[in-house]
Design brief:
This protein is mainly alpha-helical. It is built from 6 helices and no strands. Bound molecules: iron/sulfur cluster (SF4).
């Protein structure tokens, strides 16, 4: 009987310890999301057609941020205002983008809307 109780206590302590370790590791190795990448990607149509010459919308977004693509590089997005959105985003600093993102509590659609209104 004492073996069973001591086993239960031991497993409980180990579970608690591993839980604390995992919580610490999650915080320590947390990957911060780049708001600019999120905002540029959210401004694109998201149909991954490849007409821009990059491997999908995420490839175009990465290229745009690295100045390897132009505002109007997304052909399907030209008529839906993508160049204007990208122009506005590119004029904002990282801190300004982060502020918009936090003001909208991380809702990227609202963030883009807010950016376009300013
Ligand atoms: S052309 Fe536009 S919609 Fe098509 S993959 Fe490129 S960024 Fe995405």
């Amino acid at each position: 009987m004492t073996v069973i109780i001591s086993t239960i206590i031991l497993l409980g302590v180990m579970g608690f310890g591993f839980g604390i370790f995992l919580a610490f590791a999650a915080k320590k190795f947390e990957v911060k999301e780049d708001v600019r990448t999120i905002a540029v990607q959210a401004s694109l149509p998201g149909i991954n057609c490849g007409a821009c010459g990059f491997p999908g919308c995420s490839g175009f977004a990465k290229a745009y941020i690295e100045n390897r693509a132009k505002n109007d590089g997304c052909l399907p997005g030209r008529k839906s205002g993508v160049p204007q959105k990208l122009e506005k985003i590119s004029k904002l600093t990282d801190d300004q983008l982060q502020k918009f993102f936090e003001e909208t509590e991380g809702d990227i659609e609202k963030t883009i809307k807010k950016i376009m209104e300013n």
